[in-house]
Structures are given as structure tokens and as C-alpha cells.
Amino acid sequence: MRKIVAGNWKMHKDRDEVSAFIAALKNVPVPTDVEVVIAPPFPFLAAAAEQAAGSLITVAAQNCHQKSHGAYTGEVSAPMLKSIGVKACIVGHSERRQYFGETDEAVGEKIAALLEQGITPIYCCGELKEDRVGGKHFEVVAAQMKAALGALTNDQLKRIVIAYEPVWAIGTGLTATAQQAQEMHAHIRTLLATHGADVAAHVPILYGGSCKPDNAAELFANPDVNGGLIGGAALDINQFSELIRIAGAQ
Length: 250
Known about the structure:
With 250 residues, the protein is α/β, with parallel strands linked by helices. It has helices spanning 15-25, 45-52, 78-83, 94-100, 104-116, 129-133, 137-149, 154-157, 178-193, 197-202, 213-220, 237-249, and strands spanning 3-8, 34-39, 57-61, 88-91, 120-125, 161-164, 205-207, 227-230. The chain has one domain (3-249): Aldolase class I (TIM Barrel), CATH 3.20.20. 44% of the residues lie in helices and 15% in strands. β1 (3-8), α1 and β2 (34-39) form a beta-alpha-beta unit. α1 packs parallel to α2 (45-52), α7 packs across α9 and α11 (213-220) packs parallel to α12.
């Protein structure tokens, strides 16, 4: 299965910084079995997609609305993203859940809306620190996946990417151990297998909790870790380039 190195830029970089990063990234060697994804802020998506056109860089959005149009001030729909060349979209990120009250049901609607437009959803799931400490982490992730993905057909499931993000390891400097990451990724793979072995074998599962060049090799070496959804390290071209190299070496 291909490895995916996806950079979630969150609310960072202005227009010139986005342009400079993409220009530099286009010169980075990309191994044949690695897919490179960047998710700039909304104002720069159209320019980023245009600049990345014809390269090996996939441009993703960081969120979308579940409706195709309507009186939803400040929101952006999947058809709008498609119209500017966006190929993927992060949904269900823990920061969206924490700060904006997103539910798995709403995220499931967003996934369906994206799939209808031919855009790849990058679905984020993961447990809070208290869930991990309480030994409920497998149960929590299973419930999240059932609520968000339960209505999808097998063919639809094959078109998504899952990102496991232990919430306690996002922006905290903490990182799940390689063993913890593999255990959860294997659990997610087992959940996917209830929809068929072909589904489980087809869906990439990314690790999304403080992945950096100094821990990526150990994380990416796990059989069920198919790359990373990268936060802070994705903002630096040197670190991001190294993550791409490491992914290709596994």
C-alpha cells in the first residue's frame, strides 16, 4: 500500500509563504510509492491548486460544509472545492471537534458530500487522554468510526483515507509509541475488515500525533501505519522533505 505524507498547515502561512513552500516542494524528490498532500488555509487553496497542477503534490482543504449550497455564512462546500481543483479534504479533525463542536454524524455527512464530488476525505478519529488512561481508547475510536462511516458502501469506504490522531499527542509534544500507534491502527484495520478484506487492504491509515523526522521511521515501519497527517513539521520544508524521504525508505 502507498504511503501518504500529508501536511495540515492549520491557520499558518500567508500567500507568499504558501507560494514559496510549494515552489520548494516541487523540487523535492518524491518516491514512487509516496503520495504528498498539503492542506493550506482556505484563502490560498485556489492559488495552491493552480501552482501544484501537473506536479506530484495533492492539494487538500482542511474542512468543508456538508451541504452543497445555501445560507451558511462563512462556510465552503465540496462543489466549491472541486471547482478550484482541490482533490482531498480533512474532516473530523480533533480541533474542529473541540473548538467548533463537530459531531461524528456531521462529519459523516461531510464525507458523503466529498465523495459525491470525487474528493478524497481524510477522516480523523482518535481518543482523548482520559479515554486512553481509562482504557477506553479502542471503544471510543470504534464508536467514532461507526457513527461517521457506518452509512458508507464498501466502494465508498475504499475511497477514503483514515488518520488516527491521539488527541493527547496533538500540539503537546507527546507522541504515541510505535507500539501504541500500531495497536490502534491494527484495531482500525480490523474494524474495516468487517466490511470485507478488500476494504481493509485498500484504506490507508495515517498516524496524526506529533509525527516528526526523529520518530517517523519507527512509526512508518509499522505494518498498519501508512504514513502521517503532519502538523508542525509540515510547516518547515526541510522537515517535510525529510518525512517524504523517510516514508519512501520504509
